[in-house]
Amino acid sequence: MIPAISRREFCTLLGGAALGASLSAPGSVRMRTVMRLRIGLAYDDTGVMRAAVEGARFGIAEARRSASLFGWELSGLECAIASLPEKLAQGAADAWLLAAGDASAPVITTASANASVPIYNVGGSNPLFRAPSLASLWHVAPSDLDLLGAALRGGGERRWTLVRDDSARARALEYLLRSQNFSLPVVSLAPGQPLHAALAGAGAAQDESSGLILAVAPDRRGSALDTAREGDRSPERMVVMPFDEEPSVNVSWPASWHSSLERFGGAQLNDRWRASHPSPMGSAEWQGWVGAKLVWETAQKAGAAGLGSAVGASRIDGHKGVLMRFDAARQLRQPLFLVQGGHTAVEVAP
């Protein structure tokens, strides 16, 4: 004998059966797994890298908004560069953005040699960060040699002379020049030495058809530029290597970004930046921003767990008119610019 049930119990049973049928039917809607991405930001506490850090924070915030539209949860984690090895060992993030200067090279070398997730260098152009053994370190920031090449290609048909001080970065740049067979005369500038005296002693050209590329550490740049101005050189004839810190506006310098760029969405990017920041977007800020964008867009295609294997095939639009990619040396190939007098940027092909 079938037991009697009330009308309410009958409706409850009928509804449960209908729900079970709908969930088991082909094409039915199921609960979607939430995808998660953790982006770490490691940096040293130097003024040179603060711009890259701000750019990375801006990029992570934009990536988080985009990720939420696709049902992802994107979180950011920040730490001092000294804590990076510990955070890597803990698996605290799926990828890291790195904004660190020359003094942090030993920590970076140790950390990246043992990392199991990709680390994107968005701050330093130092060749010490580019050892072949550091396979987990990918370079969004252009190298010193890339920037020098942009200065030479964008500077016109001049007879260029590289003037360097005795800083480690400047000496490393000269070594790279010679290893790449660049035919560029090099003049050493002693501390406090007038530029014209160094040039005359080396027999370097000083007429209107010549130009100088000044490779001097940022903390020594002021006195070197003072002596350089003794020859009354125009900004087009005086190019300063940034060494991670852009110089004053009355000279020229190679750059990865400038606030005057408008094409390919550059104006919109600069406007978004200026809406929340008091100063315009420069190279370091752009590098931090595009590094975060690269992590998010790569994860979107390959998943957070697949970042390490997918980064080499990544293509990224950084509002430069081309899809940028990494080469075999893990360096992002990208158009660079020669900022002339601090006002306009002339594009130089990669």
Write structural notes for this entry.
Strand 1, helix 2 (47-69) and strand 2 form a beta-alpha-beta unit. It is built from eleven helices and 15 strands. It is α/β, with parallel strands linked by helices and 350 residues long. The termini are far apart. The chain folds into two domains: 35-142 and 258-334, Rossmann fold (3-Layer(aba) Sandwich); 156-251, Rossmann fold (3-Layer(aba) Sandwich). Helix 2 (47-69) packs parallel to helix 10. Helices cover 37% and strands 19% of the residues. The model is unreliable at 8-25 (pLDDT under 50). The protein has helices spanning 7-24, 47-69, 84-90, 105-113, 144-154, 168-179, 195-202, 221-228, 266-274, 283-302, 307-310, and strands at 35-43, 72-80, 95-99, 119-121, 137-139, 159-164, 186-188, 210-215, 238-240, 253-255, 316-317, 323-326, 332-333, 336-340, 344-348. The strands form four sheets. It has a five-stranded parallel beta sheet, covered by helices on one side. A four-stranded parallel beta sheet has the order 7-6-8-9, sandwiched between helices.
